[in-house]
Every structure is written in C-alpha cells, then in structure tokens.
Amino acid sequence: MITGTTAAEIAGSVRELHERGTLRPGDALPPVRELASTLGVNRNTAVAAYRQLAQAGLVVSRGRAGTVIAGTESVAQEGLADTVLHDIGSGNPDPALIPDPTAALSRIVGRPVLYGEPVIDAGLEAWAHEWMRTDLGRDDLRISVTSGAVDAVERLLAQALLRDDAVALEDPCFLASIHTVRLGGYRAVPVPVDDEGMTVDGLRNALDAGVRAIISTPRAQNPTGVSLSPARAAALREVLAEHPYVLIIEDDHFSLLSPHPYASLIGPTHRRYALVRSVSKFLGPDMCLALAATDPTTAERLGMRLSPGTTWVSHLLQRLAHAQLTDAAMRAQIAAAATHYAERNAAFTSALAARGIPTHSSDGLSLWVRLTVPARVAAERLMRRGWLARTGDEFRLDEGSPASHHLRLTVHDLSDADTGRLLDDLVAAQV
C-alpha cells in the first residue's frame, strides 16, 4: 500500500514497493485523484510525487491508460539477423562498396595524443566546418565529434531534456531513434511522414503538444526512403520560427550518398540545432564516428555530456576519416556507391511496377514497399520461400495504429537471379 503525506514520502513509498517486488513493471498506479483521496493529501501533492517518479524513470505515463511502473521495453534492432534465411531487411551498405582504408592508414600516423589536448582533430574540424557551414548557411556553428549518429542523438537529447519531456519523431521511425527516446525516458510524439517528409500539420500538432526536441531525417528517411523537399522544408521552417528554442536534431546519415540536395528544418535564426552526419553508410559502420554541427550553447552542453565518460573519439579514427574524406580516389568510390544504390533501387522499383506493385523510388539503402495484404502476412509467406523481411509494424510509434501493409526491403546487393526470384515471391505473397 502506498503511504506518505508529502510528494517525497509518496514517491519513496512507491520506490520501496517496487524494490521489494510488490509493484512490478507494467503494474498500474492509482489515478492521481484516487491516490490523493486515499492518502488525504492535496491533488497537487500526488501529481508532484508522480512527476518525481517519472523523472527518476520508475514510472511512465500512458495517457488515458494511467501511470504504470516502468520496465525495459524492447524494440527491434537494425542489422543482419542470425538466420538461415536470405536477409533482405538488414539495411546494411554493400561491403564491396566501402573504400579500403589500407592506403589511408599509412598517412595518419603521427605523435600520440595525450590527456588535456584538443578533443577534435584540427584537420577534420576545419573540413567539417566548411562542409556543414556551406549547407546550413550559418557562421555560428561549432563542430563536435561523437561515436556515431546514435551516440550524438542520445547525448544531444540528454543535454537538453528531462525525463518525460516530449520529443517529436517521424512516424514511421528509425528503430534507433525509437530505442533512444524510450531508454531516455522521454515521450515520443509521432509526426506523420508523406512523400515530401514530415507533414506541416503533424509538426504543428507536435509543437502544440509541447515537444522540446525534434528528430528529423532530411534525406533517405529510414524506413520510407523519403527526402525532405525544399518546399516542405520551407513550410516547416515557417512553423518552427515561432519556436526558436526547440532543439532540432537532423540526422543526415545518407549525406554523401544521396542524389537529393540537402533541405533543412533549421532556419537562419533558430537558436538550438544540431546537424549530425555519420560516416557509417559510406566509410563503414565500424568507423563509429559522426560529426555534429551545432549552435555554440548546444556545443558546450554536448561537450559536458561527453566529459564524464568517453571524453573524445580516437584521434586515429578521426584522422582516418579525414584522410578518406579528402582523398579524390575515395570520394570517387563513394560517388560510385551512391550511383549504384540509386540505380539498383530504381531498377527494382520499375520491376515491381511491371508486376503490379507500384512503389515510390526512394532514397537510401532500402525500399519501402506497400502490398495489398498486411505486412506480417506477407512476411510469413516470404519466410516460407526463404526470405527474411522487415515489416512496417516494427517502425510504428503508435502500437494501436492499424496493421502496416509495408515491407522495408534491402535489395541493392541481390544478384540478378535472386532479384527475379524475390520479385516473383512478392507477387505470390499477396495472393
């Protein structure tokens, strides 16, 4: 039984019941009014107790479903699956198209970097500053280096938000973003995505709901492959002009591989922003390096979030990334990879259309294919034919929404024979 007459005592009572196992993950707590009446306290006292518990990560609010004891909520993970099936849902780049770093390695050897020295390699910082400044059109930006885009997003949210703060996410959404927001104890507010990116009404509704941060994918949105159009970006910036302190995080993961121009939510006077570009799609996931261009205040706070643990990303890794990104031959390989992904996706899209499955020719490493049957039904039928596909249900934010009819398929590395077989099997999966 929950006891106490102050917010701290009530929160402490719930914590103790949880530690003893009396309250378990998923158990519902009494509604605020009921708890206040039972304990003979003011309603605001009960509200404050639940807020303390939420900020500590012990409970989560389910809206009309009430407040429940928090648990570990799992979400699907990106990458290859351990299976005998042919995995067409991994979302991985083609390893044959990732530049060989051997030649660049010989050029990065230098004196060791010691504690207390600058955390960013000077050459990489200067190159990244010019790259980001040209696209953002802002002179106030600062460059930070993190261990990949997901690491950057997690730290950017942590430096700006408290537990239970609201974050606007694209819907359907990148799996890592869903996972990061859930583990951080934040509330995800879905913003629908159409063929031009985040919808204007969706973003406006999210801002009205009080979101304090927005995570957007300007190009090759995962899973849909949609890239933000210039017209849509302008309309979204107009909405955001009234909210200059909402943190905008743009995850431009496909930057050097995308055939589309960069269009941004970040306006010229927006006060809190971060443009994050990882190198994993073109230099390989094992590089574990991302560049973040941010406003000065966010850069300082991000630096503080880095300082208690991994204070810097390996300078050897930074030098290697810089050496490859400034090498003409390697940039030509990256450009060739970009052409390959675009051509393979376009060819598969055309072949689907010829078989009566119209699909938007999207950007990125995968295709977002709509079928006439629920995605889970199609995935089960494909599994019987030897394929492992990802259903759109895995990328939804609202678990109560209708079943998805989309599959996310990674097809750029299929042989011609496997491509033909998969096309036939997709048609058969709808019957």
Automatic annotation (TrEMBL):
> Is Transcription one of the keywords UniProt gives this record?
yes
Tell me the CDD domains matching this sequence. Answer: AAT_like (cd00609), WHTH_GntR (cd07377)
One Pfam family of this chain: Aminotran_1_2
Q: Which UniProt keywords apply?
A: Aminotransferase, DNA-binding, Pyridoxal phosphate, Transcription, Transcription regulation, Transferase
Gene Ontology terms, MF aspect = transaminase activity
Highest taxon of the lineage: Bacteria
The similarity annotation says:
In the C-terminal section; belongs to the class-I pyridoxal-phosphate-dependent aminotransferase family.
Q: What is this protein called?
A: Aminotransferase class I/II-fold pyridoxal phosphate-dependent enzyme
